[in-house]
Write a sequence for this structure.
């Protein structure tokens, strides 16, 4: 027998337990729904060739659909992204894009081919536009968009071991070259040789995974998680997954740097181009900053590497100077996603290095907590890039002393985002 | 009070035992995953066919409709290999920049149709065996224009002859030991060392 005064406590406890259960069960239900447990889901599958880097990871080598029912992928269907593929197209597969302004201003157009439409700075922005364009071109509705790049294909093959496609043994060592070879030697404009090869490869990988033992499945899960963190695997499934899988811009306040490169007409070069980002910032006594950003490219190919590079930095940045060590066009300063963007087109000669350096001022990004100052820099890695080298240097206001710092210094080779932090007083 | 202390002690022991078991299980799982990953990452061991035609470097071997000769073996960094790619590559797909920890071995093979009819030939049927005993599968092939056409068509025209350069990605420290043409019966084994 409990007293009436205890009732509110009991009700509150029941409500809290219900809320906790709901908060646990809703994501589970969303995930189950995304895996097609309630009804079949169809995803747009985008294969991005990151040896030809584009903003969201790579050239759109192939697109297609895959159904997922009760957690099992089925009906993989791929096609090449040439304009002639799309029966519903009334305008030759040309897509009108609204931005980003850096692209539309620099190239002077809002019209792009479907296969070149991934000009947005992140996959989270691109994916719904791509799904809409795909529906317009093919009439097919999709529940979400999944992107894999060629590095992901390599890693998946490392996990599964070799598979046989046709009579050929495909391993992680030869998969990218084989895909390029099949694409280069395809005789038809719709490249059915390529799509047949990739479809069989995809189906073999799926079959291998389905037949895998629990240890192999765990290994695969671990690989997928890593690929997702490194943005070689991107998933846009609204409401079904927690954030972080869709490659969205991670501007959380504080200082921010996101270098996004696109290789137009530079060939399949990017797996042989090394990038170094050197960022030096000077926090003035009034909290404002003066920053130097140098992006260095080392081109290990025997042809010119041509890159349209955009640095996304905090809103309010004022560009003071831009310097180039090689043939270049720019700079072009625009705004997007609440950020300032600085773009240039740079040519890197064969077997040589080239760099672009921007000097800009920033409004105060460092915060303070009591007597301590707190500087945060988030460096976001572009999807499709395997790794890059990061050098950072932070100069504090006069008289300030470092209490704690992390990821400040030179030579950090990383395949993911980097959070730089300095606490000072 | 004493009973309570005993209960706490027992609970602590059980908790420690559970934690230790979890740590051991986790370490075992981690080892299993690492071993599995390392195993799958490696190329398969080469198993020699029962029926083979043996040849040496720069020696013809003929089987079925095809004469096969390994003319040369180069490292991808060899200027001669680069010259081949610069001469024959028709686009920017060629792979002479290897992935980290690997190198390209380029083998120059001459294949000729030994009979009047067409002979099937696929560069991907050529397998490189490393001195680690593992099979490496072709990445890419180049040749002159007519040879590239033959490669794309996967056959040699009657009397056709083709000098093809085939690139294989092999780990640093592994040397090419053998080239095997696997599509013929008997298979052709060319010893490189």
């Amino acid at each position: 027998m409990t007293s009436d005064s205890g009732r509110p406590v009991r009700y509150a406890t029941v409500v809290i337990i219900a809320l906790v259960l709901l908060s646990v069960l809703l994501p589970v239900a969303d995930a189950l729904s995304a895996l097609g447990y309630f009804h079949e889901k169809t995803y747009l599958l985008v294969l991005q060739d990151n040896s030809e880097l584009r903003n969201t990871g790579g050239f759109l080598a192939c697109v297609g659909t895959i159904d997922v029912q009760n957690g099992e992928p089925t009906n993989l269907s791929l096609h090449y992204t040439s304009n002639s593929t799309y029966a519903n197209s009334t305008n030759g597969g040309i897509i009108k894009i609204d931005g980003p302004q850096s692209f539309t201003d620099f190239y002077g157009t809002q019209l792009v081919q479907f296969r070149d439409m991934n000009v947005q700075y992140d996959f989270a922005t691109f994916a719904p536009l791509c799904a809409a364009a795909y529906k317009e071109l093919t009439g097919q509705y999709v529940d979400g968009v999944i992107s894999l790049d060629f590095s992901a294909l390599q890693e998946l093959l490392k996990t599964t071991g070799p598979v046989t496609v046709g009579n050929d043994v495909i391993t992680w060592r030869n998969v990218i070259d084989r895909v390029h070879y099949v694409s280069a030697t395809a005789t038809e404009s719709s490249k059915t040789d390529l799509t047949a090869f990739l479809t069989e490869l995809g189906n073999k990988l799926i079959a291998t995974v389905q037949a895998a033992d629990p240890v192999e499945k765990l290994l695969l899960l671990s690989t997928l998680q890593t690929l997702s963190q490194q943005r070689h695997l991107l998933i846009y499934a609204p409401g079904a997954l927690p954030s972080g899988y869709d490659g969205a811009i991670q501007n959380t306040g504080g200082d921010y740097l996101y270098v996004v490169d696109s290789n137009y007409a530079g060939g399949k070069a990017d797996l042989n181009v090394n990038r170094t980002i050197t960022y030096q910032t000077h926090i003035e006594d009034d909290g404002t900053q003066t920053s130097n950003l140098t992006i260095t490219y080392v081109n290990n190919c025997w042809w010119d590497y041509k890159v349209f590079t955009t640095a996304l930095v905090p809103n309010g940045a004022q560009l003071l100077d831009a310097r180039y060590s090689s043939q270049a066009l720019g700079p072009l300063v625009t705004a997007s996603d609440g950020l300032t963007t600085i773009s240039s087109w740079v040519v890197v000669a064969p077997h040589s290095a080239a760099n672009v350096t921007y000097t800009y001022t920033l409004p105060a990004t460092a915060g303070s907590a009591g007597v301590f100052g707190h500087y945060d820099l988030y460096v976001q890695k572009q999807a499709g890039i395997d790794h890059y080298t990061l050098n950072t240097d932070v100069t504090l206001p006069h008289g300030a002393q470092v209490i704690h710092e992390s990821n400040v210094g030179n030579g950090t080779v990383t395949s993911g985002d980097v959070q730089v932090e300095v606490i000072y007083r | 009070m004493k009973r309570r202390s005993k209960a706490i002690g027992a609970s602590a022991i059980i908790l420690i035992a559970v934690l230790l078991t979890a740590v051991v299980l986790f370490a075992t799982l981690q080892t299993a995953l690492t071993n599995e990953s390392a195993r799958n990452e490696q190329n398969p061991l080469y198993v020699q066919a029962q029926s083979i035609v043996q040849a040496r470097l720069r020696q013809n071997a003929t089987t079925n409709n095809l004469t096969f000769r390994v003319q040369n073996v180069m490292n991808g960094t060899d200027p001669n290999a680069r010259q081949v790619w610069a001469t024959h590559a028709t686009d920017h797909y060629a792979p002479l920049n290897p992935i980290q920890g690997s190198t390209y071995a380029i083998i120059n093979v001459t294949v000729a149709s030994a009979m009047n009819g067409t002979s099937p030939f696929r560069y991907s049927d050529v397998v490189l065996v490393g001195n680690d005993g593992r099979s490496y599968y072709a990445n890419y092939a180049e040749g002159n224009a007519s040879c590239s056409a033959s490669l794309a068509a996967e056959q040699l025209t009657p009397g056709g002859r083709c000098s093809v350069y085939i690139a294989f990605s092999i780990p640093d420290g592994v040397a090419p030991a053998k080239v095997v043409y696997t599509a013929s019966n008997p298979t052709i084994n060319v010893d490189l060392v």
In short: Chain B has a mean pLDDT of 86. Residues 2-41 of chain B form the longest helix (40 residues). Residues 96 and 157 of chain B are 29 Å apart (CA to CA).
